[in-house]
Design goal:
This protein has nine helices and four strands. With 201 residues, it is an alpha/beta fold. It has a four-stranded parallel sheet. α3 links the parallel β2 and β3. It is elongated and about 60 Å long.
Length: 201
């Protein structure tokens, strides 16, 4: 078949039919990529932990037993707590004046509600809860688009002792964490994680 000509070592390693990885903020779109033989990755950075649990369950229902993934953006230097008031209080007066000037100059109306990027403060506190939701799901790939906190990778690795599905998750986290991207590009075709034997789903 034509599709077989696209088979690569990455396909065998991730249990997919074609070496196509698709990122989407839509659960349905990401699930469709997986269902059609690629690997769909849902972007969950702006979801609450509860939403992550709900949407990954939806994605699993849509994708069936095909491999699915989730991505979190976990940059270094986030504030420790989800405390909007404390962060706003730390803004320089010059910054406040600059923003106020933009609102006045361009007649920007007041916000009617929080947007996708202002629903909650990106913080280590929120990231820990998001990571917890991901690790308790049955996704096959945990990708860190920006940043790969050592504690997150360590927890994913520790989870490998719980069950076969958890082992797959921790292996995929090692593959897809941002700290491992350079290794992934160089050595992925070998189908091995340093210090561990290769395993296909």
């Amino acid at each position: 078949m034509e599709r077989d000509r696209l088979k690569t070592a990455i396909c065998a390693n991730f249990g997919i039919d074609v070496p196509i990885f698709g990122f989407a903020h839509s659960v349905a779109a990401a699930a469709a990529i997986s269902r059609e033989g690629g690997l769909g990755v849902y972007g969950a950075t702006r979801d609450t932990p509860g939403e992550i649990r709900e949407r990954l369950a939806q994605m699993r229902a849509l994708a069936g037993d095909r491999p699915i993934g989730v991505d979190l953006v976990l940059p270094h230097g986030m504030p420790e707590r989800d405390d909007r008031e404390a962060i706003e209080a730390a803004l320089a007066p010059e910054h406040r004046a600059f923003v106020a000037g933009l609102y006045e100059k361009f007649q920007v109306p007041p916000a009617s509600g929080p947007g996708m990027r202002s629903r909650f403060v990106r913080s280590n506190e929120m990231a820990a809860a998001q990571i917890e939701a991901v690790l308790k799901s049955d996704v096959d790939v945990f990708a860190c688009g920006i940043g790969a906190p050592p504690e997150a990778i360590e927890r994913a690795t520790q989870a490998s002792g719980r069950s076969r599905s958890s082992a797959r998750r921790s292996m995929r986290a090692r593959h897809c964490g941002a700290a491992s991207i350079s290794w992934w590009h160089k050595d992925m075709t070998r189908g091995r994680i340093p210090g561990r034997s290769a395993r296909s789903p």
